[in-house]
Amino acid sequence: MMEMKELVKQMDVATFQRNLVEWFLKNQRNLPWRQNKDPYKIWVSEIMLQQTKVDTVIPYFERFVSKFHTVYDLAKADEEEVLKAWEGLGYYSRARNLQTAVREVVQKYDGVVPNTEEEISTLKGVGPYTTGAILSIAYNLPVPAVDGNVMRVFSRLFALHDDIAKPKTRKKIEEIVREVIDQNRPGDFNQAIMELGALVCTPTSPACLLCPVQEHCQAFHQGLESTLPIKTRKKSTKEVSLSVSIMKNEQNQYIVEKRPDTGLLAKLWEFPNVSTLRKTKNEQKNFQKALEKLYDVDIQKINYEYEFEHIFSHLKWKISVYSSEYKGTIIESERKRLVTKEELLQLPFPVPYQKMIKKIILK
User: Fold this and answer.
1) Could you tell me the mean pLDDT of each successive run of 10 residues in the chain, 363 residues long?
2) How many CB atoms lie within 10 A of CB 118?
């Protein structure tokens, strides 16, 4: 704690707060979740914004809150309907956690999003950053909201050489933010830091000459703005080859299956597929045999369509896409269905499968 106090002593905190917040109030982007202080809508936006760009989130946010306007609407919605509304954003566990947490808000807090760190942080999927964002923006409470943007900005402001990939560095920066946050305008302060990181203090080539708090920045004065922050690289991405077939019968019904309830892309729908760790010479022939064995059908025709890659945070899919026609009887279940094109379009699919639908089925 002494180290924090010494770091903060280097800064004229009052002037820093004023320079930062005034800049934000003049330059902030016009974003739909900034139209009011509704804690539910702020919560939805912050969950969507994790790992996703602002421009991507805007239409999703507007559709989502239009469909699920209040915590009550989201709480009573069918999970598959929620996943469909989230379709394309990725990180679907966040949508499920959000609905679970909202149901707790309805049942335990009479539909009012909690306004204390102790209560709100117990909700599923609500970590320290989301806690700080909701409490500061919606309830004007001086709680830090530290995300990647904030860690980058504060690493430069205080010339910190700590690795921002480590949890202890996040904790350290949270404590520094608690020391310098504007007690009167904490919501504006937190949003200002995020906005600064997004628009000015960017990961590469920061626009220091345009920065409203340049005079307070130790990295700028020491010529370290391009060196900081320090962040260790992630482990190499695992690569998996995936063969996928859009299979239909003579009635133009497609086979779709639901992914497992846990793990990657849980509970979303997909087309028949087989994964391997490497490409094979006779991939199409082997894939056809595998499909016939898996579904106990006769494939009359199989065509190679195209290949593409889809990258997750820790995994790369190299996907070979096929279309096929089959004869045989498919025994349907809760996790395996035969659907028409119209029914298929109502189901939530992961992004790579959405791309296949657009290119093969909707062409």
Assistant:
1) 71 97 97 96 96 93 98 97 94 95 98 98 96 98 96 97 94 96 98 97 96 97 96 84 96 97 93 80 88 96 95 91 96 96 97 96 91
2) 8
Q: What is the pLDDT of residue 278?
A: 61
Which residues are catalytic, by number?
46
Is the separation of the CB atoms in 304 and 131 below 8 Å? Answer: no
pLDDT, position 2:
46
Residues 6 or more apart whose Cβ sits within 8 Å of residue 97: 124, 125
Give the strand pairing for 273-276 and 254-258: unpaired
Residue 178: the pLDDT is 95
Between 79-86 and 92-109, two packed helices, what is the crossing angle to 10 degrees?
Answer: 130
DSSP string of 204-259, one letter each residue: SS--GGG-TTGGG-HHHHHT-TTTPSB-PPPPPPEEEEEEEEEEE-TT-PEEEEEP
CB 132 within 8 A of CB 146: yes
Q: Which residues pair with 54 in a beta bridge?
A: none
> 257: closest CA among 269, 274, 265?
269
**Nearest partner of 269 among 349, 210, 189, judged by Cα:** 349
pTM, full prediction: 0.88
> Any bridge partners for residue 152, and if so which?
none
Distance CA 40, CA 46 (A): 10
